[in-house]
Design brief:
The structure is a homotetramer of 337-residue chains. With 337 residues, chain A is of the alpha/beta class. In chain A, 40% of the residues lie in helices and 15% in strands. In chain A, α3 crosses α10 and α8 packs across α12. Chain A is globular, with a radius of gyration of 20 Å. Chains A and B meet through α3, α5, α10 and α11 of A and α3, α5, α10 and α11 of B.
């Protein structure tokens, strides 16, 4: 992670905070009840119930990792397993946080193009597991919408995964660190974009927030469990109103969707210039591009910042604040290589 | 925790954010490297080394609970124990977070007036433990400066505890959720106020911050461990620059001390009016006052907000922003009962 | 634990194995299905269902600690608590095993004469717990029958505890390391001696067995959980038939009760000689006796083995194999002091 | 695991107990100090130091899983990883016990023919891990001698793995559930067969024992840790003398080696009849044979017991007590298919 720091296309995870989020935070400065007893935090259940059209219990978390792992801990016992993609964030980039929050549950790794799962891919890793106490039994499925490679599950794809997982008796979690980008791409209702799952990590931090994501649970008992576990994990900030304010600011007037659309639009502009270089279709705000070291040096010499992706590729990420001119400039630079 | 919400004296943990902290956060808006690779987070080691006059490794945490428990996890194995006061925050108010972060270590509860420990009190619970594998062996000491009842350890008191704990081979942690109030009271160097300990939770949130405390470790190896464990616990925010900014704003120009003094001053004003009603000497910013239910009703009728403390007492807490006129008004109201 | 090793009255936990247990083990030598798929292990559910007159699921464990902790782990979440006596074996002598198996749950310590609990004693520690996420919520009760001081709960005492715990929504566990001694004392049905609890650790090792206790669960779902957790804790011996054989040998012809009666009888003989020296009534097979260091030396000089119990007392334990002549000799020696 | 139960070749893990082990257990019946304070348990350090020609600390465990996981827990922090083969017993057949004992450490799965690892295979999975807090860092290597497919590492192979792992700073563990078979095959000193590793699970249960394996640690500090963790995991049997007796009986007069040789010899006899059907060279006491369902039915009809291995193969395991005539009969039956 010693990549060069530069403006622009490194990641959406360090982008500035949206002005309307700043405003909402300032407006919350006056002291209110501590933890999540304040007026803003107490709105979250209703806001997300409205958004998804079914009863939801929602709580702020300080990271997406926390949201993911609190969700999983409501679904899987310490001796169980969670099926996820081999390149899922929970497997690759959370330093074993799922193991910490679940007290040792195992991630069972499935394959799939573009970090997307299918019922067949899930079945392939689940079917061989013997039904005895010697082997870890799968209890949950976790998928990422949009995926770690910027691909988006369509509602029918999600529904098929949900149906399969339900048939297996699994709990189902969606890591929606970039859920806004997925919904913006699909143009459907949020409920359709995540399906009839049990838990959704609703990303805000990468989408104009500062330090609050939302964990949305569609089951009261799970929410009760998660509230205790959030406290026990040292995540219950006493000035929770500032976290709730961020989330509500993004929900208000569908700012979250506008931000997702903006990022997607910039990504599409860049993708259009990449042609055969694209490693994956660009559906959300990540662009994986085949680029030689020499080509990457050339782009960096022009001031573009991005991460290498292995030896022969790079990852570009747009965000809510990516300027059209910067996207165009990058597109032109790539086209001109 | 269904106490009435009101202005003023409920707790310092939900107070507004200091204007200079707001400024520093706004100044950090521009994207920088994610997590704790940004320019501000990378200053923390040096800033705290300077403050304490010895090599320190410092990291932001999102709560004091996280700081406390990450510290303890560097000192005690899962099969060990941590000596603390029976009314320590880690025992009473963290929903078992020490057990989560240490993977099951036990809190060994000692007694002491005003939630303060002494070597004798520690020895009393440690001495009877048999040195065999059937009993949990103590590995660490955790004390709170200022204590949960607003009392402050003097440097000689701390030194005596440290000497005793070292003799026992313990790691030593200070929960400094209100460390600023303690140092402000003592008027000594920060290093003297915490002694030659291994770890300090340096509280910012109750002292003008928003959502960042600092974990200060005086051992490089422990810091390495804590960094991995912080990530694994889902605490590594990607826009860490906003947390570092809060801490640095408080360190700059000794704002942290000024805030502590302000809160202490307001508390002293109120305490002076309480006379025999005081349950503990008021050294920091908490005032525990004997008040009948009728008296409490009378105060609340005048608009004062505070928590009941059992059936016959109340707790008042001042903060960096407590206005002199409000402190005086409360003092007068109590005197007039 | 560096007490002198001598014959006789040190503990029942290292006594020889009963000849009928040896026979049963030898009879099981022929290879059978591994783990608990053998013919003997598969009898346990039925045997204990018969013994307690209600559906039971039973499994062997290699220690009483394992039985206790597997039981607790079916009742309490990692962020919860278990009420037990301050001197309960799970608190004092299991090196934090309950914390390991429950992933950090807390033992909430209640008081009571002779290590026995009462509803009032339980309520005393439970009532002050605030119903919020900051405090560990109690989820279970664990009591020891016979108690750590050799006292026996009567059926009405147990029933009162069960009724209170049910009212609180607790799961209920009985540590029956010396359950045989309790039932032998009470002369009632086993079901009456443990009440309508959820789980019983049925002790065999101290009662003529070698290395197998039984965990008896009165709930199928809990049993399923416990089976996975037993495997995961490395307790699932592949030659499980030898453990089942021990348990069944003790159940056959009520050998377990005969052994309990024998130990109790020897204890009663000794107790009768102790008069005012007795610290607790002797109801099972432990005798706590006030003895000065000089007196203890005198007894040891006569060849008696026992543990000191603090500075001014000793603990004598009889077992299934305590010879009448040895009990009589000890009684005479104490009387003659 | 609902395979048919039959005599003979199902597994060595349920074989009868060797007569000399029985004798030793009977000889240990007389009460001695409890736990591992008895005369036999106290011999283990010396016995294994002698066996391996360097200082060793050894303790009995009730299963191989317990030995494996206690060893790993001394080497890897909860946020770390252990490299092992994808088909290692710790990955496939211990229901997540490594995750339980290490508090969540991850198994990092390497590939290799016949479940054997090489430095290159280890490096392949270790090299891509980024050295930052977002990814689990490897801390240990675990290999199985003989492997899960009955292959044996030669001393040079072990030495190469040890050298590579040391260069990476790893702790090194050998799962020796069938270590006797490996040493018998190699005909070398035990020390050469396991190399300069940190910990060895020395299998006894599959080799004529009843319910005791030995965990051998070549570091005093690790042994201290493991002793507390063994107790805390509920594994410290009070009549530990019976476990020590089993281990010592196998060490006496090199019975363990004689048993290993007997099992290997029977396996070799069978292997010789399998020709092209063999899936792996037969070096220890497991024989993996390509057999159609019809062929397997034919063998079972002749009374042979074994497990299916996928759809088109079977696993046969010999043990210390496999009779020459039975091995010959099976060889003839396979040859006659």
């Amino acid at each position: 992670m010693t990549a060069p720091i530069a403006k622009a296309f490194l990641s959406d995870n360090a982008a500035p905070v949206h002005p309307r989020v700043w405003e909402a935070m300032r407006a919350a400065d006056e002291a209110d009840a501590p933890y999540d007893n304040d007026a803003l935090s107490r709105q979250l259940d209703e806001r997300f119930s409205d958004l998804f059209g079914r009863p939801a219990w929602a709580m702020w978390t300080v990271t997406g990792t926390a949201a993911n792992c609190l969700a999983l801990a409501t679904m899987v016992p310490p001796h169980g397993g969670v099926v996820c993609h081999r390149e899922a964030h929970i497997e690759v980039d959370e330093c074993g946080a799922p193991g910490f929050f679940t007290h040792g549950a195992k991630l069972i790794l499935a394959e799939g193009e573009g970090a997307k799962l299918t019922p067949a891919a899930v079945e392939r890793v689940v079917a061989p597991i013997r039904d005895d106490t010697h082997q870890i039994q799968p209890h949950a499925l976790s998928l990422t919408q949009a995926s770690e490679y910027g691909l988006v599950y369509t509602p029918p794809e999600i529904d098929a995964l949900v149906a399969h997982a339900r048939g297996r008796g699994f709990g189902i979690h969606v890591d929606g660190a970039r859920f806004a980008n997925a919904v913006a791409f699909l143009g459907c209702a949020p409920a359709q974009a995540c399906g009839a799952v049990d838990a959704l990590s609703f990303g805000c931090i990468k989408n104009g927030g500062m330090g609050a994501d939302a964990l949305v649970l569609f089951d009261w008992g799970a929410a009760e469990l998660a509230r205790y576990r959030r406290k026990r994990a040292g995540h219950l900030q006493s000035k929770g109103r500032f976290l709730a304010a961020q989330i509500i600011a993004l929900l208000d007037g569908e700012l979250w969707l506008a931000n997702g659309r903006a990022a997607n639009g910039a990504a599409a502009e860049i993708a259009a210039a990449c042609g055969e270089r694209l490693m994956h279709p660009v559906e959300a705000n990540e662009i994986f591009v085949r680029l030689t070291p020499v080509e990457r040096d050339a782009l960096r010499a022009q001031g573009f910042g991005f991460y290498d992706w292995g030896d022969d590729a790079a990852r570009f990420v747009t965000a809510w604040n990516t300027r059209e001119e910067d996207a165009r400039a990058l597109a032109a630079a790539i086209a001109g290589l």
